[in-house]
TrEMBL record:
<protein>
    <submittedName>
        <fullName>Uncharacterized protein</fullName>
    </submittedName>
</protein>
<feature type="transmembrane region" description="Helical">
    <location>
        <begin position="508"/>
        <end position="528"/>
    </location>
</feature>
<feature type="transmembrane region" description="Helical">
    <location>
        <begin position="548"/>
        <end position="568"/>
    </location>
</feature>
<keyword id="KW-1133">Transmembrane helix</keyword>
<keyword id="KW-0472">Membrane</keyword>
<keyword id="KW-0812">Transmembrane</keyword>
């Protein structure tokens, strides 16, 4: 005892063991401990008085009254079934261990003391064995002995232990009600206590469930058997199962059959009234994290010790995103987060998923990625948001000649490794200006971090000598990125001069050809050639062939000029209304 608090706790235990009254002179170890802490005998007595006054002894007095006034106590017998109701009455003030220890203290310090019976090495700290006085034990031994599976038993608790240890034999004996109910009647000599066991056979047809119900109703302190090991509490069982994904899966199979419900309900544990009604995976997770919210969470065999751990892995590994979405979609993550006290996260997940689904902006695969990205941002508020950057940051096409369509590429890049989908639009929309797509998406964890979009400007649809200012808007749930664009179209003077020279040269060549042909028509050889092609007897013979040739040249000249003007007007149209 190194501190005054430890000394006071020791004094309190002495008071309990000595019927709330001690003489310090009879406890030299107490005097020695007090002296080590600087107390003389008088001061130590004052400490004892202070401990007595500060302790609520009512639960202990209640236990004493219940024990002394019970019929079983007067008969010299005290079994687990007698102690259990007393422990239940003081459970808000004393632990089960403290209450049982005080009951044992009372019955073992009587003039005719009680002692644990039956086992060669009795347990003096519990009611695993029946406690009896010597006289009661002599009478009990003379009663008819009941045998079950080759073992003699005299209490229901013993019968439960034998059923538990000899499982296969018991399963054969409980196929029907021929054996167990009569055995219980012999042990209890009570129809009222036998009838509930008969009802088990009527209500439960599954033999394994019937077996579990029977053993835990006979003795509710029996452990739970899992993979050959024994577990006294649900917490011990869950803790062991959480060591691996395989073990947890096997325990889930046990849970899904209702076996854990039977154990907890028959054992009347604190969780018995709060067991999930759902025997599926979500119900199992609810029970698991009710026992201890700090248990790990498993996804596809991988262990995650906290939501932060899960998000940390998700930020660097795209392989886990599908599993995370499935856990969100099946509401398995909700169970874990709620038990961790993170109800706002659960509400946020639901709101974000509803918004994602209702937007109509995402296809099915994109919806999954967007949901996981939203979950990451919700859990880790310090995580960098998946934003898009553009290069260049602005575009200018001032004084562009209206001689050709303007095309320019804009590079978009994701700044992180997450997922984002964005819409593209021009603000305001201008006729003749367009983008080659309306959406872009990035998923950096699969090397999809950049893309180019093409801006196309048709000068024909723009007013010349007018400045147009607009923005390329890249809009996602995380940002509105705006790229300023300035455009003005001027008369294509340089192109005009080049085209003028080109067409001037072509026109000169055209007229030279016409002139050459006109000169050729006057040659005699051409005249003779023309005559031989004109049929005799027609009016052509009265017309000079040279006149006909000049008429053809005139038609060629007119047609050439007409077609040239028409082609020029079509090709060099500089406005939509021209």
């Amino acid at each position: 005892m190194r501190t005054p608090d430890e000394l006071e706790e020791y004094i309190r235990k002495l008071l309990v063991r000595n019927n709330l009254d001690i003489n310090i002179n009879q406890h030299p170890e107490l005097i020695s401990a007090g002296r080590d802490l600087g107390y003389d005998t008088g001061e130590l007595a004052a400490v004892v008085g202070r401990v007595y006054e500060s302790t609520d002894w009512r639960p202990y007095k209640l236990i004493e009254d219940q024990v002394i006034n019970s019929s079983s106590f007067s008969q010299g017998r005290f079994f687990n079934e007698h102690a259990r109701p007393i422990v239940e009455k003081v459970k808000d003030d004393l632990s089960a261990g403290e209450a049982i220890a005080y009951i044992i203290h009372i019955i073992s310090n009587q003039p005719n003391p009680f002692s644990p019976r039956l086992h060669p090495a009795p347990d003096t700290g519990s009611f695993r064995d029946p406690w009896m006085t010597d006289d009661a034990w002599d009478i009990y031994k003379k009663q008819q002995v009941v045998e079950w599976c080759g073992v003699e038993v005299i209490t229901l608790e013993q019968l439960g232990e034998v059923c538990f240890s000899k499982r296969e034999d018991t399963l054969q004996l409980i196929q029907n009600k021929l054996y167990l109910p009569p055995t219980i009647m012999l042990l209890t000599r009570s129809a009222a206590r036998t009838q509930p066991f008969e009802k088990i056979f009527d209500d439960i047809k599954d033999v394994e469930k019937r077996y579990l119900t029977i053993i835990y109703r006979l003795y509710n302190e029996l452990p739970f058997r899992f993979r050959g090991a024994m577990y006294k509490t649900l917490a011990d069982l869950m803790t062991e199962a959480c060591q691996s994904y395989e073990l947890l899966g096997q325990l889930h199979d046990v849970y899904s059959k209702g076996y854990i419900h039977i154990w907890q309900q028959e054992a009347q544990t604190a969780l018995a009234g709060h067991l999930p009604s759902n025997l599926g995976k979500n119900g199992f997770l609810e029970l698991l994290y009710t026992v201890n919210p700090q248990y790990p969470f498993y996804l596809n065999g991988q262990r995650y010790d906290s939501p932060t751990h899960l998000v940390t892995v998700a930020r660097t590994s795209g392989a886990v995103w599908k599993d995370i979405f499935q856990a969100i979609d099946h509401r398995e993550l909700h169970v874990w987060l709620e038990k961790l006290g993170q109800e706002p996260w659960c509400k946020g997940i639901d709101q974000q998923n509803t918004a994602i689904s209702d937007s109509g902006f995402y296809n099915d695969e994109e919806r999954k990625l967007a949901s996981v990205q939203a979950f990451i941002n919700l859990v880790d508020e310090t995580a960098t948001l998946p934003v898009i950057v553009a290069a260049p940051k602005e575009l200018s096409f001032i004084n562009s000649e209206a001689s050709h369509v303007i095309e320019s590429n804009l590079r978009l890049q994701l700044s992180t490794d997450g997922f984002v989908k964005a819409s593209l639009r021009l603000e305001p929309a201008i006729p003749g200006v367009s983008l080659d797509r309306t959406t872009v998406k990035f998923y950096g964890l699969v090397d999809n971090k950049q893309t180019d979009i093409k801006l196309t400007i048709d000068p024909v649809q723009l007013q010349k000598d007018t400045r147009y200012d607009f923005q390329i808007v890249i809009s996602s749930v995380y940002q509105d990125l705006r790229i300023p664009v300035a455009v003005s179209v001027v008369f294509p003077q340089k192109a005009y001069i080049i085209e003028l020279l080109k067409w001037g040269g072509m026109s000169a060549a055209f007229f030279l050809v016409i002139g050459w042909l006109a000169g050729a028509f006057q040659a005699a050889s051409f005249y003779m050639a023309m005559r031989q092609y004109l049929p005799w007897g027609l009016p052509w013979k009265y017309v000079e062939p040279v006149s006909i040739a000049y008429l053809l040249l005139l038609v060629m000249l007119g047609a050439g000029l007409f077609l040239s003007i028409r082609y020029i007007r079509r090709k060099y149209k500089t406005h939509a209304n021209d």
